[in-house]
């Protein structure tokens, strides 16, 4: 443990913590954008978390600056407040500010820190960097006009599955985030897992919504049915403040019926049938000398991963298994 002062109050915090982590543990909120998940990404690039700390020559990025014995941290000094506000205003100056039309509205970290810092809209006027929009992939949409170059998606793409298809393209004012050579997600080994979307603080990366198709089906008077996976009802619970993993099955079904779905089916029954069929097939292979190992998944992301990175394992779509995946079995993802 180390002894520090935050805003003039004495605290004891774990050695090795950054100032940002220590402040959060002590009940303070320092605005931040590029840092998340206990240091998975904290490049200090957004400069939104600047504070004053003894021993430093100037303001420091609290997401990368470690605490030290006897350190005094000032979060609300005039110098720190002004610097944080300017940093956010500079980000806003090169940001697509069509907030009312943005799918991230209401959950945007950039808007949140703008409110915390008192950043003024239009404080800086000037040219905007070139916009790249990718809507070709079935699951993801990329809009660089909303990107703040925080690097979260790049780190998550590397850490979640070891893929790392995202990176910074170009330099300086022309920098943007994209797959190599600014290819579409559809033309890169992206498995459409959505991990990058889950960590993007703005609307630069979003799910490819098909709500318009559902609305059109309603307008045409079609009999529209829905089938929801278990993960959906748990994720919905989190959106309404329930503890992680809390199912809201009844509420979800009732809400979907009121929206206009004629039938709402639960995928659990189908999953049980699938398990029975897979178990029967495995027993058949074991007794009749079939191909082993038998690997199965209903996840398109998993299938994409197997095809992109273990294509030499001879994927067989007609029979639904992979042959010779000795190496794949050693990997955590499988």
Give an overview of the whole structure.
This protein is α+β, with helices and mostly antiparallel strands. It folds into 4 domains: 1-128, Ubiquitin-like (UB roll), CATH 3.10.20.740; 131-207, 2-Layer Sandwich (Alpha-Beta Plaits), CATH 3.30.70; 211-267, no CATH class; 291-330, no CATH class. 33% of the residues lie in helices and 14% in strands. The chain contains 10 helices and 14 strands. A hairpin with a 6-residue loop joins strand 3 and strand 4. The two termini are 39 Å apart. 25% of the residues are buried. Mean pLDDT is 86; it is low at 320-334.
Q: Could you give a quick summary of the protein structure above?
A:
The chain is α+β, with helices and mostly antiparallel strands.
């Amino acid at each position: 443990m180390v002894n520090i002062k935050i805003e003039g109050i004495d605290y004891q915090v774990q050695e090795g913590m950054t100032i940002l982590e220590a402040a959060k543990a002590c009940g303070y909120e320092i605005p931040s954008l590029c840092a998340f998940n206990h240091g998975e990404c904290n490049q200090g690039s957004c400069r939104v978390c600047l504070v004053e700390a003894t021993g430093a020559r100037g303001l420091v990025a609290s997401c990368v600056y470690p605490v030290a014995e006897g350190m005094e941290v000032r979060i609300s000094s005039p110098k720190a407040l002004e610097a944080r506000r300017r940093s956010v205003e500079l980000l806003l100056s090169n940001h697509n500010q069509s907030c009312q039309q943005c799918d991230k509205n209401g959950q945007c970290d950039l808007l949140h820190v703008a409110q915390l810092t008192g950043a003024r809209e239009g404080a800086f006027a000037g040219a905007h960097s070139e916009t790249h929009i990718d809507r070709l992939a079935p699951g993801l949409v990329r809009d660089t006009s909303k990107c703040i170059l925080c690097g979260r998606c790049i780190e998550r793409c590397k850490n979640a599955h070891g893929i790392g298809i995202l990176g910074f393209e170009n330099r300086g004012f022309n920098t943007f985030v994209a797959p190599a050579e600014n290819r579409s997600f559809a033309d890169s080994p992206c498995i459409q897992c959505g991990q990058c979307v889950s960590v993007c603080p703005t609307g630069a990366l979003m799910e490819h919504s098909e709500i318009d198709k559902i609305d059109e089906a309603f307008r045409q008077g079609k009999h529209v049915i829905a089938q929801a996976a278990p993960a959906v009802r748990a994720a919905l619970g989190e959106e309404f403040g329930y503890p992680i993993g809390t199912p809201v099955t009844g509420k979800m079904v009732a809400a979907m019926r009121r929206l206009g779905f004629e039938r709402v089916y639960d995928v659990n029954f189908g999953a049980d049938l699938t398990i029975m069929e897979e178990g029967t097939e495995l027993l058949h292979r074991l007794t009749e000398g079939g191909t082993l190992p038998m690997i199965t998944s209903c996840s398109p992301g998993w299938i994409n991963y197997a095809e992109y990175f273990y294509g030499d394992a001879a994927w067989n779509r007609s029979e639904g298994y992979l042959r010779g995946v000795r190496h794949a079995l050693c990997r955590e993802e499988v």
